[in-house]
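Please think about what follows:
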Amino acid sequence: MLESTTRRAPAAANAPQASATAAAPARPPVSTLPAAVQAEMQRSAAKMKALAGKPTEQAALLDQWIDSHTRQVPMKNSVVQNLGPTGEGLSWWQGALANSVTPALMGPAAAQDLTTGHTRKLSEAHTGLGFSLSPMPVGLKTTVTRDALDLSNHAAAVLKAMLGAVAAKDRHAVAAAYAKRNGGKTLSAALGELILDANVRGPLMALVPPPVNEETLTLDAFLEQIAVGLVYSNQSAAEMNADTLDERRHSNPAALLSHFGYTAGPLILGRWGLQMRVFTPKAKGRWQTPIVAFRGTEGVQFDVQGKAAAAKAKADGGSMQAQAAARRGGIEGTVDTVIGDASPTQIGWLQVQPNQDLIEANLARVKGKAISTGHSLGGAIAQLVPALYPAEFDQVVTFQAANIDKAMVDKMRAYNGGKGQADPVTARHYRIDGDVVPTAGEKPLDGQIYYFDRVSRDKGSGKPFTNDAAMNASAGHVTPMLSTYLRGQRTLSPDLQEIVDNGLKDEATLSAKPGQKVQEVKTVFGGSYATAQDPRIVTEGNRKLATGKLHLVPGTDPFEEVVYANIAYNTLLSHIENLAADRSIKTFEQFKTRAEPLLSGTAPLPLDPDDVTLSKVLNMDHTETDYEARPIVGYPGTMPAFPAKYAPIKSYFDNGVPISPDVRVQVRSQLEIIWRAWRG
């Protein structure tokens, strides 16, 4: 017998597998529904209305209805079948490997969820005795099922009638009563997990309490403009405050900052890819809380010298300036990917740890407690920094963010329960279901989690909105989910309308790749959770296992390659930063004068202590095989051996880091940015 850990009834044998890609046909208007369905809608709505003012009873009626219509759907497709067109493009051996390795690494249930485009734990594996006609007729067998709402016979219309019968003023109370009945699981989370088709779920979610109240939604939608957009820019403060067109996502930064009463501060560049910016409220701004934002990864890539990015820019007809910018972006993205995302420690730590003095210098200038925000890798850093300096922050708001180590979450929890008890740091985390980045890391800071689905269709097609695993993992990670969500709402306040008019846009709605069409994109609310009930699939163990062994993989060690390509720049930068931090230096002119010997010198510079630590964390080898030396011939019949030699890092430890003229020119060009990053 297969073990069953749920009370759900099994689905019919021919029930379709629950899938993110399956889209329901257009729903007929109520007037065209069968008379029996209309009668059931009226009866169910009447029952709900009869309980008006009794939220506990109304929640119980909803709970009973949902429970009675929930079925266990068998998940029978293979990994390759789940991947759809992506799976079809795999060779036979790649498909066989995917079908065998993915369930082995992730577990059969997680493999089904991930490859159907979901990063929440929706499926469940059951192991029991199985029977077959093979030579071994009895043995252990694992099957995977997923709970889904049976929406046959127009059940969605009945549920919509029941939800619509709850008075608007009572919806929060009914939702609270539902959560109390279900161990804290919210009504929105239940609908989000049981109804995966966003076309069906969207109208139902419009009848439950929204993700957050209007005030919080307004703040967080504005923070999204900063975390997903502005903090990625290398503009000066003056350029950003006057910029009326973000060329990538067509937002109007100047209009947004002006409307909400904020001024962008100087670009803050640290070592090993850290980038942040402080946004200061004006005297009559919408809020009076400073915002500290951290940049995420400049595109996941491995382009150590930026050559591939520059070549692509040239092939696209880009100017020399565009090619140079692309090269810089390729280098920055590679540093972020390898040092930030692939860190064998927690994600983001190797960008935070060597820059703590820089971060502290900027927090010291912030007046009052701040909001920390970031996207992706930046979202992890936006949690790490408040965990290190909790007294400096009021809130943390992240978007599509990786998580952090449990020890850092415990550190913040201890502060909130102790010194910060009177004014604890709160956290809100926004995620797209199917985006794999939030599966990394051990835990998010305590607070609330909000899931959305990003769905799209060809513009003007009128087809149902759909998504899939590949779309969620790529476009889902970079979509401005709250801005897109707001564009699907009917009635908006003037502040929210400002974000709709001048905020970030999903890139697929602006242009199309070759062979594709411009898209219409929606984000549909998928449920809210307390962080204690975080439903995500956790991949951090596999991530750390893989990144901790990268130095053992034959061939070039990616950590060493990135460190060696960037160590000269970061070493010189650390010495220049020491001058910027020196309070005996009062003016920028004095700073330039003191920096000149470093910029015009030729001697190697001592390795920064933080980079000594970095080399140890990354397990950098101090010796390597010298293939240019004469081989050592052993006994007859044995292969010749090559002697070992010291690796460059050993020389850096002993003799310092040589700084090339190009690196000195690069850092010289950034002197004003460095000075402002430390002095404001």
Q: What stands out?
A: The radius of gyration is 28 Å. Residues 1-23 have pLDDT under 50 and may be disordered. Residues 558-581 form the longest helix (24 residues). Residues 319 and 661 are 25 Å apart (CA to CA).
